[in-house]
Design a protein that fits this description.
This protein is an alpha+beta fold. The protein is built from seven helices and 40 strands. Among the domains are: about 40 residues, no CATH class; about 100 residues, Helix Hairpins, CATH 1.10.287; about 70 residues, conserved putative lor/sdh protein from methanococcus maripaludis s2 fold (Beta Barrel); about 120 residues, OB fold (Dihydrolipoamide Acetyltransferase, E2P).
């Protein structure tokens, strides 16, 4: 009996706590059944049925880019130099990069010189022959004039002489015609050679076919092998903007009910996706339909794909649903008792489930556990901005450089001293170094003697036996003159000057009186218009067009801050061949001069550069404190405190967050009060 009493107590306790189930509970006597009603306690976990918004969506962050085109050589080649660095404005037809064409350029010079000599020789010979023809014609006129006073017998003789002269003229004219034909053949041959060589030279130049700005270059150095069709330079057309994000897959767009771009409080319709090589499907790039005047390259945005959306639908917490033989059901509270009620369900976000039939707004239902808890503190939904912070140290970079070589072609060149400090600014024509050129005095005297001997031979000969001998002696004399002029010109050289303005970034490691070889590079000057600050950007937070703050500290501890722009695309906008781990910050001209001045006089390693920026910025969006948002089963919920003092759990479509707030795409309105944790 005591055992039966104990068992009954347990059963009654279970019933009171609401943990019992349907059906019979076995006792010690299987024949005795005690039937229990569904336990009822309306004050246990319950919730009134309300209207909710439900979302099944995906958000992919990305950035606004210009339309980018990458350029490559059509054939395997050897790299020579970049002509345009990141940040350089280019137009259609601008040269972007050069392949090595030194051999071709030398051939072009030889053929051009050959063509020039052919023309000069032909013109000289033509003039000589036409002069001779003119003299012969004048002689004929003289003889005809003289004939007026001659006898008939004398006229017969003079006419014979005139006939001989006319034959001579015809011979000269025939010679002119022959020389002209030969000249035209030789010139046509040279012209065809030049056309071919210049075509080959042109093929070693990489041209832009659109207006825009260089947004990145490869890492090729002079002499590097460049395979055909490998990207070398990328140009961005800022008149046509695109959106790029992580690859979302083609199927997702087809599945989505809504598919759009959201930037700074505005939605944009996305156009077609730009196709990339299969190996480059890490990112998706879309055109943007409609007016994009409010957008700028570098703007942060999100692609929103809403696969399912239910607004203001009857929904219950997932914890209220039970599965029976005939389908789903909930326990509805009636008169303090739980009544099993069949329901037809629809969409679920993992927290709340749509109810198509079975319960209505205002019905009270039982829960196995509370759906969402909330605190007493509240906050208001308001418009604002969110962003992240970026800060890294940087380095001064000068990608476009010009070499300054020893200008003396002959003689022994010795360094006297450098006139400019490393990293100082140099104007075009300004002296970089002082040099001394020493020539061989004996060689000069020997050349003078050779010239005197050749001049004497020419005077003594008067007229030459043939044209070849005349040409040989004149050519020999000319060569001696040119050699002597080179020596005398070299002796006058005392300076090495800059051909172009820029920053002196390299000089020879030579001391006073050390020799400089012919054609040796003595200095390297960087184009200050293309200098920039490079900063590590592995995470891709900085993007083309972003504004940043650059500060530098000179050797005296003085700090200067200025605004710059990111001038290269991050990896999201480029192929793997042109990806860069660094972001390049374009420098105003005056800042370039200041930084280079700070780096001069041995301050290169003591000059500090740093870059800071607000990144992933989203303006004009609804924001809620992070403490108000609960992430459950992939859904984001807030608890709204209504004007009547009641609470409703609301699914929201979240775009992103910063350290303090979430920003909301849908589900909330300005001024709503939300509960904090």
């Amino acid at each position: 009996m005591r055992g039966q009493t104990k068992q009954m107590a347990v059963i009654l306790l279970a019933a009171a706590l609401g943990i019992g189930g349907c059906g019979a509970v076995e006792t010690e006597n299987p024949s005795d059944e005690i039937t229990l009603l569904e336990p009822v306690n309306a004050n246990a976990n319950t919730e009134k049925v309300m209207l909710h918004n439900l979302y099944d969506y995906e958000v992919e962050p990305g950035y606004i880019y210009p339309k980018i085109k990458e350029y490559s050589f059509l054939e395997d080649t050897t790299f020579f130099s970049y002509v345009a660095a990141p940040g350089t404005e280019v137009s259609s037809g601008s040269v972007l990069a050069k392949a090595d064409a030194q051999g071709i350029e030398e051939q072009i010079k030889r053929v051009e010189e050959q063509e020039k000599n052919l023309t000069e020789t032909y013109e000289e010979e033509y003039k000589d022959l036409t002069d001779l023809i003119g003299e012969q014609k004048k002689l004929i006129e003289e003889k005809k004039e003289k004939q007026k006073g001659e006898t008939e017998e004398e006229k017969v003789f003079s006419n014979r002489q005139i006939g001989l002269i006319e034959n001579t003229i015809r011979g000269y004219e025939l010679s002119i015609k022959q020389k002209e034909e030969l000249f035209e053949l030789d010139r046509d041959y040279c012209t065809k050679q030049l056309e071919y060589l210049r075509g080959e030279q042109k093929s070693r130049l990489l041209y832009s076919d659109m207006n825009g700005m260089v947004v990145n270059v490869g890492s090729f150095a002079p002499g590097d092998y460049v395979p055909a069709k490998k990207s070398v330079v990328a140009v961005g057309d800022f008149s046509e903007l695109m959106f790029t994000c992580s690859d979302i897959g083609q199927s997702k767009r087809k599945q989505a009910q809504e598919f759009y771009l959201f930037v700074n409080g505005t939605s944009y319709e996305l156009g077609e996706e730009t196709e990339r090589e299969a190996s480059e499907q890490e990112y998706s790039t879309f055109s943007i339909n409609g007016d994009t005047s409010a957008l700028s390259a570098g703007d942060f945005g999100v692609l929103v794909a809403v696969y399912e959306k239910r607004e203001n639908v009857v929904a219950v917490p997932k914890s209220a649903l039970q599965k029976g033989v005939s389908g789903m059901y909930v326990y509805r509270i009636e008169n303090g008792e739980k009544v099993m009620t069949d329901v037809v369900t629809g969409m679920s976000d993992g927290v709340y489930t749509e109810i198509l039939s079975g319960v209505s707004v205002g019905d009270e239902i039982s829960l196995s556990e509370s759906a969402i808890s909330h605190g007493k503190d509240t906050a208001q939904v308001s418009y604002g901005s969110i962003s992240a912070s970026f800060e890294e140290s940087g380095s001064f970079q000068c990608p476009i450089t010009y070499v300054v070589k020893n200008p003396a072609e002959v003689g022994t060149v010795c360094l006297v001293e450098y006139k400019k400090e490393l990293f100082s600014y140099v104007n075009a024509g300004e002296e970089i170094a002082e040099i001394r050129v020493e020539t061989d005095a004996a060689a000069k005297e020997e050349l003078k003697k050779k010239m005197e001997r050749e001049e004497a031979r020419i005077r003594d000969a008067g007229t030459f036996e043939n044209e070849k001998e005349a040409a040989r002696r004149q050519k020999a004399l000319k060569n001696y003159q040119e050699e002597l002029e080179k020596l005398e010109t070299a002796e006058q050289i005392s300076q090495i000057c800059a051909d172009k303005s820029g920053i002196l970034v390299w000089t020879m490691d030579k001391k006073e009186n050390e020799t400089i070889a012919s054609g040796e590079t003595v200095a390297v000057i960087a184009d200050e218009k293309n200098c920039y600050v490079a900063v590590s950007n592995e995470n891709g937070l900085l993007n083309l067009g972003n504004k940043v703050q650059v500060s530098y500290q000179d050797t005296l501890g003085n700090t200067t801050v200025f605004e710059g722009n990111v001038i290269n695309a991050s990896k999201a906008g480029l192929s793997e061949e042109l990806e860069s781990a660094d972001a390049y910050i374009g420098l105003p001209h005056e800042m370039t001069e200041q930084i280079s001045a700070a780096m001069a006089n041995g301050g290169f390693y003591r000059t500090k550069l740093s870059v800071s920026a607000d990144v992933r910025e989203m303006k004009g969006v609804l924001t809620v404190p992070k403490e108000a948002v609960k992430r459950i089963a992939g859904a984001c919920y807030v608890t709204i405190c209504k004007d009547d003092g009641t609470y409703v759990n609301q699914n929201i479509l979240v775009g992103g967050n910063d350290a303090k707030n979430y920003w909301v795409l849908d589900g909330l309105e300005e001024g709503m009060v939300v509960c904090l944790e």
